[in-house]
Amino acid sequence: MPKVSQVELVREALAGRVVSFPTDTVPALAALPENAALIFAAKRRSQDKPLILMGASEEDLWPYVMGTPEEFAIWQQVVDRYWPGALTLVLPASERVPTAMNPTDPTTIGIRVPDSRIARAILAQTGPLATTSANFSGEPPLETMSAIENAFPDVLTLDCAELNDKKQGSGLPSTVAKWTRKEWKILRRGSVQILNIEL
Q1: pTM score, whole prediction
Q2: In this model, does residue 1 exceed pLDDT 60?
């Protein structure tokens, strides 16, 4: 599939297609949350590996999680410090999250705001998208738009002069922290170097 403009990428994502664009970590495969199954199929990804809901701002993502006012205050302190950035927070999911995002545990959802101007510009127009790294399950993440285009011919990739087919992002995955109702548990250490006590 040829690369497309940002305008066309947004239009096709809203129409239900799987698309790909750069982030601050590695390029993403993305689709509307209700179309998350398309990403699992494209990646040949196991159902027990949930997707991340990526948004342009925390305000866009809060409706997808549920908690007490006290919990939201704690979560807000964390995002004020680390977002936009490579930190994924796994929080209790609201009814707004489609089961397809996390088939084996639909009670939780990972959310993130990327530190990427291009990604946030796209997400501001599409709304939050189901995302994951652009690669086949078990293989290293693909780091250029051309590599993604070659591996996933049915996925629309972003054509942008400033990309110039360079490696996109840090190449490291996001750090993943899960809220356990009373504290944070680090599930994966990645781009953001934090200690549990800092959260």
Answers
A1: 0.92
A2: no
